[in-house]
Amino acid sequence: MLRRIQLFLAQLCGYFPSRAQRSLHDAAAFFIFKVWRPAARLIPFFLLRKLPVSSALIGPPKGLSPTTKECCHDSDSYFSLHPPHESFHSSLPAVLGGKVHPKFLDAQSIAWSATSVARIPGARVYGDCGAVITPDDRLIEDVSHEIARSGFHHSVFSRFRLPRPQSLDHLSAVIACPGRANYYHWMFDVLPRLHLLEKAKISLPDIGYFLTGEFGLPFQEESMNALGIPADRCVPCSPSSHFRCHDLLVPSFTGLAGHPPAWACDFLREKFLDSAADASATDRGQKIYISRAGARFRRVLNEEEITRGLVAEGFKIVQLETLTIREQARLFASADVVVSPHGAGCTNIVFCRPGTAFIELFSPRYVQACYWAIAAQQKLRYAYAVDCRNSDLSLSDGHYFAMLEDIEVDFATLLETMELCTSLPRK
Question: Residues 119, 250: one domain?
């Protein structure tokens, strides 16, 4: 539901000036998070869990299982892959004035949980985010993520009746996740789950169905084809989807959302970065600016000024939606300097060579550290700039809908930030 509201607001806000847009976002967030959800929690949905019948017939699942491992009854049905581990980024981002945003301080130390693949015959998969329900009618919490919901607050527990389950008779694998129609989440949350299946010695051609969430975007089809999975084996999941699987493979998530582990970065480079892109020096040395002119939200309001100035500095202006994944990978592998507003296109810095300078642009109420985390792992030089010319805005953390807000960064500030970034020592 949050994504549908987000897209509606993005469409609506095109008719309003920036100040009015922020007021609309705030009103939507207040209604959803302060009125609607608290009111919904007053409804005694927990009584539905007492019904003496399976949630396949009526009511929600009867319980909650915190981990996938406890749902597997023998060692042959559970494959432990990566152990839990921690990472600490000693170097903070570069920013004019030296005062680093708290989001980056919070992301300095990251703890990744263990990864695994479980095989659960008779399990069910509900909804567009791929919630997994065990044969004994429990929701598996660690592989059933929703945005801003967890535990018994998962939307499945507020359903009086789930859709009638559709049977899938062959071996299936669930790889859906929140945000799977977004390029970043597809690349770092969905595709690495396929790598976990391969690491568990499971042959992808032997899997009959892949439950993907929303499916059909060009980058989704291209990436699955690159992994040898034809589109006819990808089963789209919608909010009203409910599947009963004869035999279900459940790979874990890659870890903390927004902070992909090094093995996920290595997997993407291996699959999509042509070896020739690293070997050839003919295209190297490019300076590129990633435009969001074609995006529905988080556009750069003064982009004409920015692009005009950057072209004079030798930059190439690129709209990534016109390129394939492999073309994007090759472009970023050839770059020495990348400037981009915060957005899914920044995912491609995973393909950059060590030492590449990456400058990210933010709106004041939506600063995220996910691309800095990737830059740190890939040994890139990183700096960021935040628009804070509007006196009524602070650098405080915004709400969910603040991600829609447009960006406006003074060009002189951008140039100073770029000089700061390129002066950093190469790692």
Answer: yes
Question: Comparing C-alpha atoms, which of 373, 338, 360 is closest to residue 104?
Answer: 373
On whether residue 6 sits in a domain, the answer given is no
Task: Tell me the torsion sign for CA atoms 198, 200, 206, 210.
Answer: negative
Distances (CA, A) of 192 to 36, 176, 196, 262, 269: 35, 11, 6, 11, 12
pTM for this model (two decimals): 0.88
Structural domain for 123, as ranges:
60-94+113-257
> 3-state class of 425 per DSSP?
coil
**How far apart are alpha carbons 379 and 402 in whole angstroms?**
29
As given in the structure block, the two tokens for residue 83 are 């152990």
The residue among 205, 226, 257 that closes a domain is 257
**Could you give the angle at which helices 218-226 and 325-333 cross, rounded to 10 degrees?**
80
Tell me, yes or no, whether 162 lies in a domain: yes
Would you state the structure tokens that stand for residue 168, as one six-digit string? Answer: 């899938």
C-alpha R_g of the chain: 22
CATH number of residue 286's parent domain: 3.40.50
- Residue at 72: amino acid letter: C
CA–CA dist 193, 187 (Å, integer): 10
Tell me the pLDDT tens digit for each residue of 398-425.
667 788 888 989 999 999 999 999 999 9
Cα separations in angstroms, 64 against 49, 56, 412: 11, 16, 54
- pLDDT tens for 239-298 read 889 999 999 999 999 877 678 899 999 999 999 987 544 545 556 789 999 999 888 888
Phi, psi of 64 (to 5 degrees): -135, 130
Retrieve residue 239's tokens. Answer: 């909010």
Establish if 263 belongs to a structural domain: no
